[in-house]
Amino acid sequence: MHNKKPCWQSTYHALLMLIVIATITVTTNSNLAHSILHAATVNRRENNIGLKAQGKPDWGERHDGNQAVAGTREYCPKTDYPLTTLVPKEVNWSLTTQSRPTFWLYMPYTAEQVSSAVFVIDDETSDFYHEVQVTLSREPGFVRFTLPDSIPALLSSRDYRWTFKVFCSEDSLTPIFVRGFVQFNEVEHSHLQDYQTYLDRLIWLDAVDVLAMQRLNDPSNTMLIDEWRWLLMSGGIDLTDVPLGPIIDAPLMVNEPSNE
């Protein structure tokens, strides 16, 4: 005759079995979630890689400009990388959904190294021409400059030419400069969630701004660094001409004239 197990022992074994099943389920779900996240990351990177594999994106009609520095650097200190504006290299033109867009550059000079810096924007007519003096940051890196309130907001579907000039010495009459074109297009912002959406719609200026701010808020995130690399490559920007960082925290500010 077999001995019948006590009720408490049967209950214990049942609970133990439930714990084992729950543990397996949690582990499986965790692995599944990790696999889904990994697949999504790989898919995004493959999409970005595909931009290069399928040929460069059609960023629009080519405009005359200078993505990398132009002008004599006779009076400028030697730097590892040149002054460079972040616009698609082949066209020197970019779209934005902001009437006061934010422009990004790689600035190799600091405020202490140059005499002055000037931002100029016009629409190649006599009706719209504005320039402001700008104060550079205290360290080299990727910097941003947002169109200030002292300059009228951009009108939709019109090309504007913008130039960033740097005078390295008071003795220099000719600045070094970079130049690009921008066009403001009004869109429904609720449909634009992240930089990838901007990139998919070829809205370059906003894609750069969103991803740069994400990197600024999480500078050690290697995934964001990889995304930044692919973004620059999609715009035809040579990664031997610019480093991957740093992203400078403080924006470039307008140098307001003294009241004295």
| Poorly predicted ranges | 26-42, 48-54
Q: Summarize the helix and strand pattern as letters.
A: HEEEEEEEEEHHHE
- Using the CA coordinates, give the radius of gyration: 26 Å
Global outline: globular
What is the tally of beta strands?
10
Number of helices: 4
**How confident overall, as mean pLDDT?**
80
Structural write-up:
With 260 residues, the chain is of the alpha+beta class. It is built from four helices and ten strands. Helix 1 (7-53) packs parallel to helix 4 and helix 3 packs antiparallel against helix 4. The N and C termini lie far apart (109 Å).
Core attributes:
alpha+beta; about 260 residues; single chain; 4 helices; three-stranded antiparallel β-sheet; seven-stranded mixed β-sheet
Short description:
The chain is of the alpha+beta class and 260 residues long.
